[in-house]
């Protein structure tokens, strides 16, 4: 059954822009005799209510990442949307959540609205899978969703910090979880490089759509490359996943590396092995652009770059591939859009976040040659 998008309820919208929510009907004098303030109790209640469900959502999204069959993945997303809908309906009727102090109510607004944004994104994802939304439209929807979630997360972090300082409260483990972790769907992890022959062997449960997404191609491109007349696949069938391309330009002798460039490269390498997490911006888990932003910010140079791959691609100065220097950002296409970014090290090697975590790769391999989109220099 096709789902309709949810509208943000009035109370959630009002706390988002700073309006007061309903004043508690209980007497604040009840807290006067208590060593725990109303502000402490409210933030504890908020965290203890939302964190378990956020953990459920995160676990479900990780499970979906491992599903290879498109129909099963869509069914799992549909189930998750139902869970979110049920949780939000329950929240609307929850007395404690509707009687938080106004500042805790604002914090709740960011968490509540993030779930609505996720629910609506799943609706769009299903529309895309059924062909009701074009590639271009879905790319735009995904970019907007990422910005929306990042904005809610930033506002939540800032408001929580202010609340903690102003109201002199401590945060319990559940609140710490909400502050340290994001929830975002990961319909596609970073693309998988082809083997050395530029081929892929079909496994049980594979579909053309799944294989195309895995290698940053459209279904049409994959069918054309393999002269396929139908969408049917056979286990053991060998597919070409990228056409051959001209060799990468020979790199020019690298200019002397500045202290800042060396800082970026050295610090980037210290994070090798840190896990991948869609929407992640800390060593607990990075996505591709969260990693590059974190490295530039924390390598000692304190350089701020935009949050998303698309915005990072618009930053800095264009660099030719044969003029790459340590610390340059290198970009790659997944299909038609630029969706992967890494940091150039030296000798055709770069570092980025794969689905298995932070690792190094070579620009000389077939996959990265074919998907290379350009480079930007942030440090001069």
UniProtKB/TrEMBL annotation:
GO terms for biological process: proteolysis. It is an enzyme of class 3 (hydrolase). Keywords: Hydrolase, Protease, Repeat, Signal, Thiol protease. Residues 198-241 form the LysM domain. One of its GO terms (molecular function) is cysteine-type peptidase activity. Its EC number is 3.4.-.-. It comes from the Bacteria. Residues 258-379 form the NlpC/P60 domain. CDD domains: LysM. Residues 1-19 form the signal peptide. Belongs to the peptidase C40 family. This is Endopeptidase.
